[in-house]
Specification:
about 50% helix, mainly alpha, two-stranded parallel ribbon
């Protein structure tokens, strides 16, 4: 019963924050979407399927940062030629994530929670995945703060399947542990840290260093039929 009340309380807080935030940020989001359209000729928004609460799939909304209709790896890392000039700015500042306020209002996501993954990366038979998917995915969390410069890290990878075989398992373990430590005060701290990170830039921390060392020292043969040159983060698409 306590867990249910906490879950409902978090949902109420999400809506109370998302409603005024959506009204305030709507002009900014629409302006950026218009700028994307003017600069690239493509739709300003991009929707990609993600795995959400209890394995339910939903459309994650972002501002478009890549050219549409251009062939390339299924996922991306830093330096991808498909990323537009304005897309680089949006990714660096994380402004491409702003439309996800709509996902929060719809109930697909929360402000704080594990970042949602593309379905092809999720194994529902894995205990850690079931733990992560026991809560709504979020716009920000501990893992995304620690790996804020994930695309740059993946560009250093020596493995073609670096994301799926090296980065994701580490993220999954940390995300599952964070779910067990969730609390209202912890959420507030994560939101404040996220706002600070926008101005401070990517942090250098023990977790990032550990992942970077694994990426640059381990070579794992690509799985048959892989669609990408190296398996970058699914969050980088769009």
């Amino acid at each position: 019963m306590t867990e249910i009340r906490a879950w409902r309380g978090k949902r109420v807080c999400d809506v109370l924050i998302a409603l005024p935030a959506a009204m305030v940020l709507a002009p900014v989001i629409l302006f950026l979407a218009l700028l994307v359209w003017i600069r690239t000729g493509d739709s300003g928004f991009y929707v990609h399927e993600r795995m959400g609460y209890r394995g339910r799939r939903f459309g994650l909304i972002k501002l478009r940062t890549m050219r549409s209709g251009v062939a390339g790896p299924h996922v991306t890392c830093a330096g991808d030629a498909r990323i537009t000039d304005i897309g680089r700015f949006l990714r660096r500042t994380k402004l491409d994530e702003l439309p996800q306020i709509w996902n929060v209002l719809r109930g697909d996501m929360s402000f704080v929670g594990p970042r949602p993954e593309a379905p092809q990366f999720v194994d529902l038979n894995n205990r850690l995945w079931r733990e992560v998917l026991s809560v709504r995915p979020g716009i920000t969390d501990d893992v995304s703060l620690l790996l804020r410069d994930e695309e740059a890290l993946l560009a250093k990878a020596t493995s073609r399947d670096a994301y799926a075989n090296i980065v994701l398992p580490e993220k999954l373990k940390l995300a599952a542990a964070s779910v067990g430590m969730s609390s209202p005060w912890r959420d507030v701290v994560i939101i404040l840290r996220t706002l600070l990170a926008v101005f401070r830039g990517p942090p250098k921390n023990d977790f990032t260093i550990m992942v970077e060392n694994k990426l640059t020292s381990v070579v794992i043969p690509a799985q048959a039929g892989t669609q990408c040159h190296y398996a970058g983060s699914p969050h980088a698409r769009g």
